[in-house]
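$ fold --in a.seq
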Amino acid sequence: MLSSHPGSAEVHVKLVNGSRATLLRLGPTRVAPSTALMADLKALLGPAAVAG
């Protein structure tokens, strides 16, 4: 799904488990931040799981 939104912004994923959080950078994957990308992420993961 990220490949449908190519661009120059790095992709970071924050995983939260209770009081612990881990921040991941998705290597060479880059996207164009847009309302379309945010809508796709919210549809896939749910609105509460997407910030930005």
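$ fold --in b.seq
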Amino acid sequence: MSFPRLDDNHQPDKIYAYHLFSRSTHLNEAVKIFSEKHHEVHVLNARSFEDSLSLDGIDVNAHRLLEEENPLDAAILALNGVDRRVTHISITGYSLGGLIARYLIGLLFLRGFFDKVQPMNYTSFTTPHVGIPPPPYSSKFWFSLGTALLGRSGAQLHLSDTYGETGRPLLSAMAHPESSFCRGLALFKNVAIYSNAINDVTVRYVSGAIEESDPYAKHSEDEMLPVYIPEFSPLIQSFSLRRPPARPWLRKPRKFDGPLTVWSFPWNMILYLCLPLLIAFWFLYLAIYCPIVLYASEKRVKELLPRLETPPEMPCVSEVHSDAPEMSPVQLGMVRGLNSVTALKKYSAFRPGIRNSHGMIICLESGWEDHQVGRGVLRHWANEFVVL
């Protein structure tokens, strides 16, 4: 995230939040590119919910940003104590961090924080704003596995939790236009949503882009011809469909060599031979590690929840029924509620030929060639960032 502007040196502050099982170092490239463009901005890269702490819940981790290790409150007090005063604030979140950032905005709104500090920029990168679509809109196996293995945060992402006395999911409450979360978000001058158009196996386009339907899902990568934003590839303005080549009367059946043929010999053969051992090790890891981590998370949450500041009861979005095959009626209502934010702008990255574009969008691993193209997204974000 980024922090407010400071009076004397005219420095806005920025705060960053990130995703499940991640570390603040995953945003190093984002911080580097942003700071090169806006060196006058004071940056706080949140470290209060690294690794398994991210399982504790969106609300719990938003409170951690305020009150625990490396907290927002303490950082602002420190800045105000050096002959400067925080006057503007911007907040950025990657993946789950985008939801934690939105919950944090709701808490700050209820505190009256924005009466003294002007909200400037909210940005999310491939954040599941409306959660994970449930069956039959997604795989029943993976949906059940994610709900079981990702703790309280997983329940909230899969909309299987109950928020307060509403009887509805937390994300449903966060998407209502009259909630403190949306009212706080509406105060920001620039609300930018970056999503992956294709190849994001972690966050589907409809959730990351807050859209009712996915125009890319109907076509293969080879069929689509993207029009990139000049100088900011892989972000696209639009896409068109290529003219299909003439098909021969007789075609040979295409040989399937398996997914590991992209590895050169002998490494692909070694991986094939080791695959049974790797699968067995993975299941053993899940059987031992997950119960320990989930038990520790549940214990932390039981201790923390009674001490947390609870927002007042607020309405949840209504269900919307349509022919859209990508999400549930509750999620359609969430999409329409979030799209009511006036300053909302959306950008999509189109990166073909990559196994999972989720980390690419923020250049999570700067040494990987596939992730390096994400620098174009980060440069666009830094360029569009509003500083008064």
